[in-house]
Design a protein that fits this description.
heterodimer; A: 218 residues; alpha+beta; 4-stranded antiparallel beta sheet; B: 184 residues; mainly alpha; 3-stranded antiparallel beta sheet; 3 strands; 8% strand; elongated
Chain lengths: 218, 184
């Protein structure tokens, strides 16, 4: 595991949840932290971490995964919001599926690799956005009537749960990111976002951000 | 406790005939629907609890079903991510319940066949000559791996001519082959 620089500590900022969502889904939460880093090819220590992680995950873990508390909590939440977790896989299950399918965790880029390590280690769903293209705090809300979504021709279906800043949706929950809001080569600051559901302890969300942040600083 | 229950049975089923004007089908105008909203929210919360319990049951069945193949664990979604209504949550719950029943039935069917195969292995081991060339794989008894029990003649053709049969247990899966993943 990479050493965290002394001067950097994860400072998670709790995001807002639309009251209607908070009432329906107690335990739903979103936490974020921004850090200065660039994406691009992963450095060797990060790729080495991925290789070590690949060695630790095998078929047996994949079979038992959905019975573990945090992955199970996400599966349940997927059912609650109308998603079939066997079709639209939970973030952790998608990563484990790819590990089994590809024979290893493939290195993509610095940010994706850091998210992979944190999600597999902790199990919490993480996303990354370009921090300089986020206005205000992030949160979770329902889409409004005929609300547009960058990169999508038609408006979002009314009532879709989205990750949003104070101006616009940044991404559909557990789905695609709005065009231009994700991390690109030109991104100088990355906003790491952890999405928690009932059954996922707050400490796990902070840990996931910490692990991802550490990996990004590797 | 039992007496209390018996007492309740003595009561007339309907004390007062229900009157529609006492129980209106919808909230009166001007009273909004706060009460009804609250009821639905409780119903949704209750359905979500049931869905969580069923998802756990299905996950456990998934774990215990390995390595059996061909069992369908899928439960269709309702098109999300969004807040589901009571009706939709009921559909998810009912689909989960149906799927759990089907998976249990499938596992039961597998168990019957696997038990028969285990008995066959015992019979083969006790009397190999009566089970010439029969081969039972690990998969046939619901276990992972590549082991198999094979009734074959000792010393090849000579054993076959002389009736010297034995059950040979294979040594397991062949070593993994193929390209090693690249270092970088």
């Amino acid at each position: 595991m990479a050493e965290l620089p002394d001067e950097w500590e994860v400072a998670p900022e709790t995001g807002w949840i639309e009251p209607a969502l908070a009432e329906e889904f107690p335990g739903l939460s979103i936490v974020s932290t921004a850090l200065e880093t660039r994406t691009g090819r992963s450095p060797e220590p990060l790729r080495e971490q991925l290789r070590l992680l690949s060695d630790r995950i095998a078929g047996a873990q994949a079979i038992q995964l959905r019975q573990k508390p945090i992955p199970w909590a996400y599966r349940v939440f997927f059912r609650h919001i109308g998603l079939d977790p066997d079709t639209t896989r939970t973030p952790i299950e998608q990563l484990i599926f790819e590990r089994i399918h590809d024979g290893r965790f493939k290195s993509r880029n610095r940010v994706d690799d850091a998210l992979t390590i944190a999600m597999v280690e902790v199990g919490v769903a993480l996303r990354a956005f370009d921090a300089d293209r986020v206005e205000g705090r992030v949160g979770l809300r329902l889409s409004e009537e005929e609300e547009g979504f960058e990169g999508r021709v038609s408006p979002l279906p009314d009532g879709t749960i989205v990750v949003a800043d104070e101006k616009r949706p940044l991404g559909i929950l557990f789905d695609r990111t709005a065009e231009g809001r994700g991390v690109k080569r030109a991104t100088a600051r990355v906003l790491l976002v952890a999405i928690g559901v009932r059954g996922v302890p707050d400490i796990a969300m902070e840990e996931a951000l910490w692990v991802a942040g550490s990996a990004l600083r590797a | 406790m039992t007496e209390e229950l018996l007492e309740r049975l003595d009561r007339p089923e309907v004390l007062i005939a229900p009157q529609e004007d006492v129980f209106p089908p919808a909230p009166p105008d001007g009273l909004d629907s706060v009460l009804f909203e609250q009821d639905e929210r409780d119903a949704r919360a209750d359905l979500r609890r049931q869905i969580a319990a069923m998802e756990l049951a299905l996950s456990r069945l998934f774990g215990s079903a390995f390595p059996r193949k061909g069992i369908d664990f899928s439960v269709p979604g309702m098109g999300g991510p969004r807040m589901l209504s009571v009706d939709e949550l009921e559909k998810v719950r009912d689909s989960l319940a149906a799927r759990i029943q089907e998976v249990r039935a499938d596992l039961h069917d597998y168990a019957v066949v696997e038990e028969a195969n285990r008995e066959l292995i015992e019979e083969m081991t006790a009397d190999p000559a009566s089970h010439k060339w029969v081969r039972v794989y690990n998969e046939d008894v619901g276990e992972p791996g590549c082991k198999n029990w094979h009734a074959k003649p000792k010393w090849g053709v000579l054993g076959m001519l002389l009736g010297w049969w034995q059950v040979k247990i294979s040594s397991g899966c062949p070593l993994a082959e193929g390209l090693r993943p690249p270092e970088s």
